Amino acid sequence: MSAVELRGFGWRHAGRRAWAVRDVDLRIEHGERVLLLGASGAGKSTLLAALAGLLAEDSGEQAGSVEIDGLDPREARERVGIVFQDPQTQLVMARAGDDVAFGLENRGVAAAEIWPRVRAALARVGFPYDLARPTAALSGGEQQRLALAGVLALRPGLLLLDEPTANLDPAGATAVRAALRAALDVDTTMILVEHRVAEALPLVDRVVVLEAGGGVRADGPPAEVFAAHGAELAAAGVWVPGPPPAPRRAAAPAGEVLLTADRLGLPPRLAPTDLWVRAGEALAVLGPNGAGKSTLALLLGGLLRPGTGRLAATPALAGRHADQPPHRWRAPVLVRRIGSVFQNPEHQFVTGTVRAELALGPRRAGRTPAEVTAVVDDLLARLRLDTVADANPYTLSGGQARRLSVATALATAPRLLVLDEPTFGQDRRTWRELVDLLAGLRDAGHGIVAVTHDADFVAALADRTFHLGGRPDGQAGEPPGGGPHGEAA
Amino acid sequence: MIAYGPVATPTAPLARRNPVAKLAAALLFSVLLLVTLDPVVPALAIGVELAVAPLFGVPYRLLARRAWPLLLSALGILVTLTLFAAERTGEPLVAAGPLVVTTGVLNTGLGLALRLLAVALPGVLVFATTDPTDLADALVQNAKTSPRFAIGALAAFRLVPLLATEWQLISMARRARGVDAGGNPLARLRIFGSTAFTLLVGAIRRGTRLATAMDARGFDSDTPRTSARQQRFTWADTALVGGAVLVAAGILAVSVALGTYRPVIS
Asked: Which class is domain A257-488?
C-alpha cells in the first residue's frame, strides 16, 4: 500500500559522465500495477534500484527527488521488496524454508511468527516442495518463485520486479508469471520491468515508457500507449504486442553435410544422439531443460570430449583435418572451421577492448595484420559496435555483449556456427539483427546450429528442428525443403 | 561437486550436540595434544578419536574416505624424516650403506606423523556431522558472532560449487576463441592466469549481486536480527567440551607417568 512520487528525478553513478536516468516526473498511486519500458540503457534498472533504496548517497549524484509514501526510499526500505533477474544470486540459504525466513529474521520478526509467514508465502507462489527442499536442487523457475516468496513474506507495500523471467525458459517464465498473478493483492503496488510485453500485459494496468535521453515518453493504459507509440517502441527494441516478426526462409536448398554425430553423448548430461548438420541450413535444437542441449552445443563445437559415440567432420568442413574428431583439433584449426557462441557472452571475453577482442581470433588463425584490420573494421560496422570499439567488453550492455560474442565467432569466418540461446534476454532490435545476420550467413552457405527455447526465433529462422529428449529415436524434423516447422510452438 | 553437507547419521548422540560445542571440544582437545612431542600422546588420542567416531554417527568407512589425504601426508612425513632428518640420535636400528635409521629419528618422525592425524581427525569428525546452516546459527546465537560475518560467509559458501563449473566453461570458451597452449608450458601458465582472472571478475560480480539482494531483504538494517531456527547450548554441550578437556588431560597424565612426556617448550 505504497505510493511513489518522482519529481525531476535523475541519477548519475559516480565516475560516469552520462546520467543513468534523468528528468523523470512520475506519480504512482498505491495498488497500481505498472509496466516500466524503455530501450536498453534508458535507466529502468537504476530507477528500480533508487526506489528500493539501494543507491547509497555516496555512490553517485542525485537530481530532483524520489519519495515513497513521503519518505526517502532509503528510509522506506521496509515497505519495498525487489526481485532481480538472476535466481542464482538471490537465494541466500541452503534450504527453501530458511531462505524465505532470512528476510523475516533480518526484520526482527519474532521466531514464533516466522514459520507461519514462511508457509503462507510459499503457498502464495505455488511452491511445490516442503520447507527442507535444497535450493540448489530447484529449477530456475522454481528458484525465482522462491525468491518471490522471500520478498512477499515481508509484506511489501511496493513490489519491484527487474526482469524476473529474463533468465528462465518459457515453462519457468510462465510459472513465475502465474505465481505473480495469484500472489498480488489489492494493497500491493507493483512496478515491473520486462522486455516481453505481450506476456507481461495481463499483470499490469498502466504502462510507463522511459525516454533514453531522459524523461518519460509515454504513460497511460496499455492499449492507449501501444496505439500511440507502438511503432517507435518496436523500433527502440521493445517487444510490443503484435504479429510475430517476419520469417527469413532459406533462399536455396541445404548443401553438403558438414558434421555427423553418431550416438554422440556424454553421460549423464546427454544421452546418445544421432544428428547431422548441413551447409546452408539453420538447425534449431529444442528440448526441455536438462535434456543436454548446451552439452550438445559444446560437443558439436569441438569443445568437449564425447563420452559415447563419435562426432565426425566431413572434408567439406575440415579439409585435411577431417580424419580427426573436432575435439582433437588445435584451437587455431578449430576456430577457422567451427565457431561457438556461448550462452553467457562474458565467458568468452579475453582482452581489454572490443577491437582487440575481434582481432584475437583472426590473429590466432594466422591472418596478416592488414587482413585482421579489414575483418575487424567490417564486423564493427556490420554489428553496430563501432561506437564502443575502444570500450572494455565487460562494460557493454546486454545487447552489445551478445553482438560482440557473435562477431568474435564470425571473425575467423568458420563454415559452421554453433550458438547456445543466442536470443536470450535480448531486446527486439538486437533479436531482429541476429536473425537477419544468421539468415544471411546461412544463405551464403554457412551451417547454423542454434540451441534455443525461443519459439519466435525458431519460426523466423530454422529450416529444420531437432528435439532433444522429446522423442525416443532422437532424430526429428524433415529433410531440408520440407517447409515450415509446426513443432516450434 | 564439492560435498559440504553433513554426511553422517544426524541422530547419533554426539552428532546432535551444538555445533559450537563440537567445534570448541575439537579445538581444545587438539590444542592440548600439541604441548608434547612424544608419540604416545597422539597415539592414545587417535585411539580415543576412533572410539568416539560411532558416537558421532560416522562409520569408519566414511572416516577413512574423508581422512585418506591425511593418512598419505602422515606417511610422507614419517618416510621423509626417517630417511633425511639431520638429528640422528639414539640406537641405530637399520644400517644400509649410508642410511642409518636410529630410534631417535623414528621416534620424532612417528610423533610428528601421529600428531598430524590426531590433531586433524577431530575436525574431520565435526565437519562430517555438522550442517553449515546449523554452524552459522550456533555461531550467531551461542558464540555471539556477528551475523554479518556468519550468515554472510554461509551465503558466499553456497556459491563455491558454481566456481568449478565456471572454470570449465571459461576454459572451453578460451578454446572457442582460438586460444590454447599446445605444448608450450609458458603459454599454459599465461592462459591459467587469464582464466583465473576471468573467474575472479565473475565471482566478484556475482558476490556483489548477492550482497545487494541480501541487503534488499534487510540484511544491513539496524533492527536486531531474530532467529528462525533455535540452537540451544545445554548441559550436554558443556559436558562434551568438559569431557574433551578431561580426556586430553588424562592422556597427558599417562604420558607423564610413562616418562615419555617431552614438552614443546622446555
From this structure: alpha beta
